[in-house]
Design brief:
- Two copies of one chain form a homodimer.
- Chain A has two domains: about 200 residues, Rossmann fold (3-Layer(aba) Sandwich); about 150 residues, NAD(P)-binding Rossmann-like Domain (Rossmann fold, 3-Layer(aba) Sandwich).
- Helix content of chain A is about 45%, strand content about 10%.
- In chain A, β4 and β5 form a beta hairpin.
- In chain A, the strands form three sheets. Chain A has a five-stranded parallel beta sheet with strand order 9-8-7-10-11, sandwiched between helices. In chain A, strands 1-2-3-6 form a four-stranded parallel beta sheet, sandwiched between helices. Chain A has a two-stranded antiparallel ribbon with strand order 4-5.
- By secondary structure, the first copy, chain A, is an alpha/beta fold.
- The interface between A and B is large, with 39 and 39 residues.
- Chains A, B: GO terms for molecular function: oxidoreductase activity, acting on the CH-OH group of donors, NAD or NADP as acceptor.
- Chains A, B: Belongs to the short-chain dehydrogenases/reductases (SDR) family.
- Chains A, B: It comes from Chloroflexus aggregans.
- Chains A, B: Pfam families: adh_short_C2 (PF13561).
Chain lengths: ~425, ~425
C-alpha cells in the first residue's frame, strides 16, 4: 500500500484527478496443485515462480489498495473496471494462487460498487475467458501435464463449453478463444458514459461459456462439524482467536467420540484457552483429560507440520479438520473508506493463511494415502465462517468467496488424483 | 406467427438479410392481482386493458417467432438483443401478465444463444430497471393503489435498492431511475462488433439494483405432494394428459387421508383414466369408491369454477392443489429450428394455462377466506414439473422459469393481502 500511495500521489500531483481506473495488472501465480504451491519465496523452485502471498498481493491487494487510495481523487461519473477471470468461478486445475484471489476480488467489487455508488463512482467487472495468446497455450499445456492428460485436453474441454462459433481467418465458423481486443472493447464500453447507469455489473467475454452449476457453496453454510463421522477419529481444529467457539466444538466432538487437537494461530488465545482448560481440570478432578492445543503460524508452515508430526506420534493421525478464520471479529463495516490494517489482515491472515493450512493438510493426507496401510476413510475438511450469517458482513463475504473457490478447485484436483 | 412470417418475408424481399434484431416490442399487460387478471378479452373492463393470452403472445411469443423466422436470414456475426426487465426476477406486485412471460424469455434467450451460436449468431439480454418516464410513474402509482400503500411507496422502495447515485440537472448526486438513453447505449453496444465475443450475456441497466436473493426455486423441485398435510383435506390435482402419474398421486394422497378431485385438461386422458378406474372397481368390488375426475379447460375458465362448485357441494371445499403441465412430454429438443406447434403449445397451453388455473384458485381461496367460518388452514399449491430433471429439457426449463416467477409474485401478493 505504501508504494501504491506514492504512485497515486505522483499521478494526482500531475493530473489533479483520475476518471478511469482499470485494475488489469496482476500476475499468473504458481501453476501447481494445492499441496505443491510455493508458500514462501524459499519454496519457489522454478525461476519465474511466485510465492502465494505475492500472488494474493498482486491479484487482490493491488486492486483493493488502488480503489481505496485512488477513489477519493475520482469525481462522480468516474469508472473503475476490475478485470477478473471466468475461471474464478470454475474448476481450474492447479491454479489456486490465481483464481482464489480473483474470486475474492469479484465479491470485493460488488461491495465497492455499493460503497462508491454513493459518491457516483461506478465499479464493474469483466470476466475474460481463455484468451487467444501464447500464454494460454502454455497455461493449458502445463495443466495437461499436471493432470496427466494428453496435450490439448484442457483446451478442448473449455472450447466445448463455448456456445458461440466464430469465423476464423478463412471465414469458417469454428469454436475458438476470444481475443484480447474483445476484452479491450468491453473495457472501453465500461469506461465510457454509455454505461453511466451500470454498476456492480459483470460482462463475460467468453464466447458464451457455460460452466457447470456447482453446489460447493453448501459447504460454506454454518456447519457444526457434526457432519463429520467423528467417532474413533482425530479431528484437528485450526482456530484463530475464537476461544468459546473452540471450547464448544471440542466438547461436541469429544462427545461424538473424536479425539481433538487444536491449533491456535493466536498465542494469546492459546494461553487463555489453556487457562480455561486448567480451570476445567481443577473442577473435574484427576479423571479429566485435557484436549491438546498447540500453536500454529501459517506464515511459518513448519509449525503446522510439527503439529501433524505430534499427531502421528501420539494419536492415529488426523482424519478430519475444521478450519476457523484467523480472527473471530469483523474488522470494519466498509471496504473502501478504511486504513490498511483490515485489508492486510484479510489478504494475508485470512486468505493466504487459509490456503496455506489447506495446502499443508493436502500434502499431509497425500503422504498418508500412499503410505502402506493407509486408512480407508477419506479425510474430511470443513471451513467454518464467523457467526450465523455473512449478509451484512463485508469481510466475511470476501473471505467466503475465496474459500468457496479454494474448495471448488481443491475438490477438482482431489477427484483427478483418485484416478492415479 | 403467420403475421411475423409475412413481415419477415417483406423485409427480406427488400433487404436480403438482417444483421441486428432487437426484440423490444411488447406490451405492459394488465396491472392486476393474480385473482383479477383479465383472462380473456371479455374480462377486460378498462379500455386499454389486455387479456392474459395477448400479453404472453406479445411479450414472449413475438420475440420467439421473430428469432425462429428471422434467424435463417441472419449471417454469422449477427446479433439478437432481447429486452427483458429486471422485474422478471423480482417481486413485482400486480404484474404477473408482464413479468411471467419475460421470465420465460430470459431462459429462452439462453437456449437460443446455444442453438444459434453454432450459426455464429449472438443472442444477449438487457435487463432495464425502472426507467425515468411517465409510464413508470403510472405503473408505480397503480401499484401503490393495489397494495393499499401511500403514493410514492413503490418508487421509494425500488430506488433504495440502487447502489449508484447520479447527478441530477443541478449537478447534485441522488438516487434516480436510469434513462431510456442508458438502455439504448447498452443495445448499441450489444449490436456492435465490440461484442463479437458475447453471447448469452446479460446487461442490467439499473443503477446497480440489488434484489433480495430468493429461494422460491425450491418450490420447483420434484416435490411429491407429500409436503401437503393431506389428512382430512380435499386436494385438487390439475392434470394434463399424465394418467399414470395421476393414478400414483391419487393413491398416495388417499393413503394420507385426503379426498382427491382430479381436473383433466385432456378429454382423451380423462376417458382413459375413467376406464382404468372402472377396471380397479371391477377388481376391488363394491367397496371401492372411485376418485372424482372432471374435465377442465383453462381456455374456458368457467369449467374450473364448475369444478370448484362441485367440490363445494360434495366435499368440504378444496384445500390444496397440485398442478401438472398440460402435456407430459417434451415436444422437441430445439427452440429455434422448429415449427409453430410446440411454441404455441408452450405459450398458450402451458404458460397461459398455468396462470389461468392459478388465477382461478387464487380467486376461489380469496372468496373462501372472507366467507364466514373460513378454514384456519392456509391453502397450499404445488406445481409439478415433468420428469426428474429439466437439465436437457428446453421446454421444461422455459416453463419452470415462468412458473418460478409466477410463484414469486403470487406469494408476494398473498403476503401483502394478509395485512388487510
Amino acid at each position: 500500500p505504501a508504494a501504491v500511495r506514492a504512485g497515486v500521489e505522483a499521478i494526482i500531483g500531475r493530473h489533479g484527478h483520475i476518471d478511469i481506473l482499470v485494475n488489469n495488472a496482476g500476475s499468473t501465480g504458481a501453476q501447481r496443485r494445492l499441496a505443491e504451491i510455493p508458500l514462501n519465496e524459499t519454496d519457489c523452485d522454478l525461476d519465474d515462480e511466485e510465492a502465494l502471498s505475492t500472488s494474493v498481493a498482486n491479484l487482490l491487494g493491488m486492486a483493493w489498495h488502488l480503489m481505496r487510495i485512488l477513489s477519493p481523487h475520482m469525481p462522480p461519473g468516474s469508472a473503475i473496471i476490475n478485470i477478473s477471470t471466468i475461471f474464478s468461478r470454475a474448476e481450474y486445475y492447479g491454479r489456486i494462487p490465481y483464481v482464489v484471489p480473483k474470486a475474492a476480488l469479484n465479491t470485493l467489487t460488488q461491495l465497492a460498487a455499493r460503497e462508491l455508488g454513493t459518491r457516483g463512482i461506478r465499479v464493474n467487472t469483466i470476466f475474460p475467458g481463455p484468451i487467444e495468446s501464447e500464454r494460454i497455450q502454455t497455461v493449458f499445456q502445463r495443466m495437461d501435464q499436471l493432470k496427466g492428460r494428453p496435450e490439448g485436453d484442457t483446451a478442448t474441454q473449455f472450447l466445448a463449453t463455448m456456445r458461440l462459433y466464430r469465423a476464423n481467418d478463412q471465414g469458417q465458423l469454428e469454436r475458438r478463444f476470444p481475443t484480447i481486443c474483445d476484452v479491450a472493447d468491453a473495457a472501453v464500453f465500461l469506461a465510457s458514459d454509455e454505461t453511466a447507469a451500470l454498476t456492480g455489473e459483470t460482462i463475460e467475454v467468453t464466447h458464451g461459456m457455460e460452466l457447470p452449476a456447482s453446489s460447493e457453496t453448501s459447504l460454506l453454510a454454518r456447519t457444526d462439524l457434526r457432519t463429520i463421522d467423528a467417532n474413533g477419529r482425530t479431528t484437528l481444529i485450526c482456530a484463530g482467536d475464537q476461544i468459546e467457539e473452540v471450547m464448544a466444538l471440542t466438547g461436541m466432538l469429544r462427545t461424538c467420540g473424536s479425539e481433538v487437537i487444536i491449533g491456535f494461530r493466536s498465542e494469546a488465545a492459546l494461553a487463555q484457552f489453556e487457562q480455561a482448560i486448567g480451570e476445567s481440570r481443577r473442577l473435574a478432578g484427576e479423571s479429566f483429560i485435557p484436549p491438546i492445543a498447540l500453536p500454529i503460524d501459517p506464515r511459518n508452515p513448519s509449525t503446522i507440520d510439527a503439529l501433524f508430526d505430534w499427531a502421528g506420534e501420539n494419536t492415529g493421525g488426523i482424519h478430519a479438520a475444521g478450519i476457523l478464520p484467523a480472527s473471530g471479529h469483523e474488522p470494519a463495516t466498509q471496504v473502501i473508506d478504511i486504513d490498511d490494517a483490515p485489508v492486510e489482515a484479510l489478504l494475508h491472515d485470512e486468505i493466504v493463511g487459509s490456503i496455506i493450512i489447506a495446502s499443508r493438510l493436502a500434502r499431509y493426507w497425500q503422504a498418508q494415502r500412499i503410505a502402506p496401510g493407509a486408512r480407508a476413510r477419506e479425510p474430511r475438511v470443513i471451513f467454518l465462517s464467523n457467526g450465523a450469517g455473512t449478509a451484512g458482513n463485508p469481510y466475511g463475504r470476501i473471505q467466503s468467496a475465496a474459500i468457496e473457490q479454494l474448495i471448488r478447485v481443491w475438490r477438482h484436483e482431489a477427484r483427478s488424483e483418485e484416478r492415479f
